[in-house]
Design goal:
Blueprint lengths: L2 H6 L32 H13 L6 H14 L3 E5 L2 H12 L6 E5 L4 H9 L3 E5 L10 H6 L5 E7 L8 H10 L3 E5 L7 E2 L2 E2 L7 E4 L12 E5 L2 H11 L7 H6 L19 H12 L1 H19 L5 E2 L7 E2 L5 E5 L7 H10 L5 E2 L8 H4 L8 H9 E4 L7 H16 L1
Parallel strand pairs: 2-3, 2-4, 4-5, 5-8
Antiparallel strand pairs: 1-9, 6-7, 6-11, 8-9, 10-12, 12-14, 13-14
Bound molecules: pyridoxal-5'-phosphate (PLP).
Length: 406
């Protein structure tokens, strides 16, 4: 392997300390990043094999990734896509969200949720979150249902499953569609079963900030054969025959178009990387859980800090570790993030409410989402990722203590 590349890639077992970017080595010396994907020689080798095979677009590796993830989470089908945004869009189209339909989403989430609704022709409608889980509050969702509401898109924020049964009950009571955005929560479980294995159309993201990565990528988990088939067709221009099938038939299979589609394909280069990442999932989950437990213990001495809450029905994936500053804290969360950066620790402010964004501000000017607004002000994310060492966690907590008090 090229020496420079070897230096740039996070090699080998988690715990290895290889800076991800050469150009930032000086700037980030002795610095704890917010996260670092766990990538190594195995991913490079898998990608190399795909490149040398000559089949680099959507093909057998993507199909294998779909089969393996479906089997893992307990869904009948996986449909690989080039992002979770496209996965969410396809799911809504396949399930029949129509132009003008309102889709309830949390306002405490990223723009991708709103984007997917808008791309599907729908209108994002916001609801507030539960104070402790940061996920949709079923009672507030129910209050916001109106005559145009067609669907609820629940989000398993920060790697923690939302209360799926509560959301299902509201959706069933009002005859609404239910979608689960598990973009950040691959590997998390609700009541002992992986998300995507509960019969609710579920989407995952494979962006590097998420649990496993293919660079960019996503997947829809579906149990219905016809929905999955339509999602596969729409993913690939609307063609009735895939590139792979046509290739296998030596070009003698002809496609037709019954509706217009998209290019939402995941490449086999990406899927090969995803298959290697999948083998690391148990180790990733274990490391993140251990790191979360260590933070819990270390943070007990900081009375200004409220650690994350995990309901008894959830197994957290710990894609992020979100702390909350209690009312007694003398410094704002934003100021803590700035002070942590000066102390060589990258944190992030909590998720910012979508209804405050210029794109939505006018329509939502008179609405309030008290739990979301409080969470946005009071929360921040600490570094958590495979390879984060105990020493680094001690450094993070020491920097946090100084940032809160200095
Ligand atoms: C909750 C949530 N949903 C969806 C997405 C979109 O994922 P992608 O970047 O794969 O489209 C993100 C990405 O940040 C996310 O955090």
């Amino acid at each position: 392997m090229d020496q420079a590349l070897a230096r740039d890639v996070h090699m080998g077992a988690p715990g290895a300390r290889v800076p991800p970017l050469r150009m930032s080595q000086d700037l980030f010396a002795n610095h704890v990043p917010l996260m670092r994907p766990w990538l190594g020689e195995e991913e490079v080798q898998a990608i190399r094999e795909v490149v040398l095979s000559g089949w680099v677009c959507l093909g057998p590796k993507a199909a294998e990734l779909e089969r393996r993830i479906a089997a893992m989470v307990g869904a009948k089908h996986g449909v690989a896509t080039n992002s979770a945004t496209s996965a969410l869009h396809l799911t809504m189209q396949v399930r029949g969200v129509k132009p003008g339909d309102e889709v309830i989403i949390p306002t405490f989430t990223c723009m991708a949720n709103a984007n997917a609704v808008v791309i599907a022709g729908g209108v994002p409608t916001f609801a507030d979150i539960d104070r402790r889980t940061y996920n949709l509050d079923a009672a507030d969702v129910e209050r916001r249902i109106g005559p145009k509401t067609r669907a609820i898109m629940m989000v398993d924020q920060i790697g923690l499953p939302a209360d799926l049964d509560a959301m299902k009950a509201v959706a069933d009571k009002h005859s609404l569609l239910l979608f689960d955005d598990a973009a950040t929560a691959f590997g998390a479980k609700y009541k002992g079963r992986y998300l995507g294995g509960h019969g609710v159309p579920t989407s995952y993201s494979f962006h590097p900030r998420k649990m496993i990565t293919t660079g960019e990528g996503g997947m829809i988990m579906l149990d219905d054969d016809a929905w999955a088939e339509r999602a596969r067709v729409l993913r690939s221009t609307g063609a009735s025959v895939s590139d792979l099938k046509r290739h296998e038939a030596k070009g003698a299979l002809f496609q037709e178009y019954f509706e217009s589609g998209y290019n939402y394909r995941l490449t086999d280069i990406q899927a090969a990387m995803g298959l290697v990442q999948l083998d690391k999932v148990p180790a990733m989950l274990q490391q993140r859980a251990d790191q979360a437990a260590r933070y819990h213990a270390l943070l007990a001495k900081l009375e200004e800090v409220e650690p994350p809450f995990v309901p008894e029905w959830a197994t957290h994936a710990w894609s992020s570790y979100c702390i909350r500053l209690r009312p007694g804290a003398k410094v704002s969360a934003d100021e803590v993030v700035r002070r942590m950066a000066e102390r060589n620790v990258s944190c992030r402010r909590g998720i910012q409410p979508l209804h405050h964004e210029p794109y939505f501000r006018d329509r939502w000017a008179s609405d309030h989402f008290p739990e979301t607004e409080a969470a946005a002000k009071e929360t921040l994310f600490l570094p958590i990722f495979p390879g984060l060492t105990e020493q680094e966690q001690l450094q993070v907590v020491a920097a946090l203590e100084q940032s809160l008090r200095a």
